[in-house]
Specification:
alpha+beta, Dipeptide-binding Protein, domain 3
Length: 539
């Protein structure tokens, strides 16, 4: 296990793995078996229109991308090496041109309305056209650099960019946005929201969906990688109550931890580790930093949060160490503008220059700044919030309200059901403040450009900062890794001073999986299906 001291210093570069008891695993892959997971009820199945991870998790099993992240026990959590998925080869032919050669013989699931036809370059072109043009496209910012997508022939597709974009291949591989779809599904259903429209080329097919109850996925016998997947069925049970899913895991209902990607939070782990040794011997574990950042979003386009002093006061009000001790069992990391888990990119707080001081807990300075901004008696506010079914998030919310009140910000809780939260506050439709998790992206650009660039859909704080916009564009155009890091560090220092969003601490993931699950390794992100494609069950 990672110690407190080690966790706070290694960022995403460290991982600890162990087993509750030793057990020799099978070396030869075995076909068959059913894997059981706890999951979330997706609001719908159209991943192009979905901000929700609840949708992206399902699609990771059923759809393929041009590129993917390598998976397995040899991949360090927090690392995302790229390999081909639907593309067998690719080439950057100029600063703004990429050509992908598709595998031949890849077929969509043998389900109507596509009925197992072969995937072609036209499907890739159509997918990206929809991402770029569909009203409400959730992650269009990841692909705004694309000027044109062309099917050169049946198995070749060409991307022409508006300008150099250093993160292009990373975006293509991202499980949140690049899943390739069939035109027939959109034409038949109008969109991809219905379960009947879940027809991809991925390793599993959606067999049944019972709203708020369960989903069942079955092996795709026509998957384009011979022999894969090894697991025949994946049962996904919707369970939003933490006590219920904790009890279910204890007795073996779930093969992986029930929180984000196959994990459990530390507070639950501390409660369960001793019973697990007795009830489920052989469980495998891995501990690594989380890239989930809970943010305070603020309406920076109108009073009082258009005043940088008010935003700085909000940050100074937060007792981040107290949050770590109270909600994360004392193990966590203070995040700057980038999550500490992205250790290759995120500056330590001490290196954020003038803005570093706003990450300390200083209620007196917070009250001074509020008074200087014209609020000597404090100010009222509301905080839009959804629980996400997480007791940890609820506890953090309560500490946040207490901290704000201590400096004179009388914040009232505006708690919404998850769907209402996604449709309003998550899209920047709120009056005062929002508190909740930021999508845990896998590279800096999505955390920075999507969140801060003027007019972007994920710019929930309504930030408009021309100097910042210039820097955000510059890092996208900088191919040289060292130079790009310098620009990103400049962005981080600017954001530390401005405090357009206020970041709460992140904890550790405790990856936990059944001893029978072989050739599996946990990682950040929602690519459950990718991490399980080559895994097998030895039972």
């Amino acid at each position: 296990m990672v110690s407190r001291r080690e966790f706070l210093t290694i960022g995403a570069g460290g991982v600890a793995a162990a087993a509750l008891t030793s057990r020799a695993g099978a070396q030869t892959p075995k076909r068959g078996g059913t894997l059981s997971l706890r999951t979330w009820d997706p609001p719908h199945f159209d991943h192009i229109l979905a901000h929700a991870y609840k949708t992206h998790v399902v699609i990771s099993f059923t759809h393929s991308r041009l590129l993917r992240h390598k998976a397995g026990p040899g991949i360090r959590p927090g690392a995302f090496p790229i390999e081909g998925d639907l593309a067998e080869a690719w080439q950057q032919t100029s600063e703004t041109t990429y050509v992908f050669k598709l595998r031949k013989g890849v077929r969509f699931h043998a389900k109507p309305p596509v009925n197992g036809r072969e995937l072609t370059a036209e499907d890739v072109r159509y997918t990206f056209e929809r991402i770029l043009t569909e009203k409400g496209s959730a992650n269009v910012s990841m692909f705004r650099s694309i000027a044109k997508v062309e099917a050169l022939d049946r198995y070749s597709v060409k991307f022409t960019l508006k300008e150099p974009f250093a993160w292009f291949l990373d975006m293509i591989a991202n499980p949140m946005a690049g899943a390739i779809i069939a035109r027939e599904c959109v034409e038949k259903f109008g969109d991809l929201k219905k379960p009947e429209a879940v027809v991809g080329t991925g390793p599993w097919m959606l067999e049944t969906y019972s709203p708020n109850v369960s989903l069942t996925l079955v092996r795709n016998p026509g998957y384009f990688v011979a022999g894969l997947p090894y697991i025949d069925r994946v049962e996904m049970f919707v369970d939003e109550d933490n006590g219920s899913r904790m009890a279910a895991f204890l007795v073996g209902k779930y093969d992986l931890g029930w929180e984000f990607p196959g994990t459990m939070n530390r507070s639950d782990w501390v409660q369960l580790v001793e019973p697990l040794k007795k009830r489920r011997p052989g469980l495998k574990i891995a501990e690594f930093p989380s890239n989930v950042v809970n943010l305070i979003d603020m309406r920076t386009d109108k009073p009082p949060f258009n005043d940088v002093r008010v935003r700085q006061a909000v940050s100074l009000a937060l007792d981040r160490k107290g949050m770590i001790d109270a909600t994360l069992e004392g193990v966590g990391a203070v995040n700057g503008p980038l999550p500490a888990a992205l250790s290759e990119w995120a500056l330590p707080i001490a290196e954020l220059g003038e803005g570093a001081k706003y990450y300390r807990h200083d209620p007196a300075e917070a009250r001074r700044l509020l008074a200087a901004a014209g609020y000597p008696n404090g100010l009222p506010a509301s905080v839009c919030f959804a629980t996400y079914g997480s007791t940890q998030l609820i506890d953090t919310m309560q500490l946040l309200l207490k901290d704000l009140k201590s400096v004179g910000i009388g914040a009232t809780l505006d708690q919404k059901e998850y769907g209402a939260y996604q449709a309003t506050c998550r899209l920047g439709k709120f009056d005062s403040m929002v508190f909740g998790p930021l999508t845990p992206f896998l590279e800096p650009d999505s955390f920075l450009f999507g969140q801060y660039y003027s007019g972007e859909p994920r710019n929930r704080s309504h930030v408009s900062d021309p100097a910042l916009d210039d820097l955000l564009v510059r890092q996208r155009r900088t191919a040289d890794l060292k130079s790009r890091r310098e620009v990103i560090n400049q962005i981080e220092r600017h954001l530390a001073k401005q405090q357009y969003y206020v970041q709460a601490p992140s904890g550790a993931y405790i990856g936990v999986w059944d001893a029978a699950l072989q050739n599996y390794g946990p990682n950040l992100g929602y690519d459950y299906g990718g991490r399980l494609t080559a895994a097998w069950l030895d039972r």
